[in-house]
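Structure first, sequence second, as always.
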């Protein structure tokens, strides 16, 4: 349907290297919620936002995040096949101290990145399509917090 096409074509238009877009997303995330920086303390260079955003370990995480979105975009027709993977991913985030409430601000940061990267192509239907997909991904990850 139309939503899937909007997601696929916009994701493709970001180019092959998604890391810079992921950096924009996490930069926004740390502006909106600076406390999240401390969850990356496994990496001592994450004392300040700028240090963190340029550290190799952090860029690795950004790469992993973009890969998860990439997998989701390529499974729009069968997103639920990712449920187990996403549940386990949620568990890992619970273990490092992430709160499910933080996913709302992560979502805002994702939309901010899409808006700044896509410019004119960022429309209300596109925003809604991404939000719908993100909501499904987050719901699956949130199962990792369930008792
Ligand atoms: C792993 C933090 C959001 C995907 C990790 C790790 C930390 C972390 C500390 C373990 C160390 C590392 O691998 O770098 C956070 C924080 C987030 C966040 C604070 C936002 C509040 C996300 C999102 C995704 C994601 C939205 C993808 C949709 C991953 C992946 C791993 C990971 C794939 C590796 C898991 C593994 O080792 O199998 N995250 N993360 N993260 N994160 Fe995140």
């Amino acid at each position: 349907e139309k939503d899937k096409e909007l997601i696929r074509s916009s994701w493709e238009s970001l180019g092959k290297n998604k890391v810079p877009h992921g950096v924009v997303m996490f930069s926004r995330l740390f502006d909106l919620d600076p406390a999240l920086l401390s969850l990356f303390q496994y990496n001592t260079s994450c004392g300040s936002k700028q240090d963190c955003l340029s550290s190799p370990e952090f860029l690795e995480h950004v790469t992993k995040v973009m890969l998860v979105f990439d997998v989701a975009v390529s499974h729009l027709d069968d997103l639920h096949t990712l449920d187990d993977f996403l549940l386990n991913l949620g568990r890992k985030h619970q273990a490092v101290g992430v709160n499910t409430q933080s996913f709302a601000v992560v979502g805002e940061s994702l939309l901010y990145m899409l808006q700044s990267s896509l410019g004119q192509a960022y429309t209300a239907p596109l925003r809604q399509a991404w939000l719908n997909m993100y909501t499904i991904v987050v719901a699956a990850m949130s199962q990792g917090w369930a008792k």
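Margin note: The chain has one domain: 2-145.
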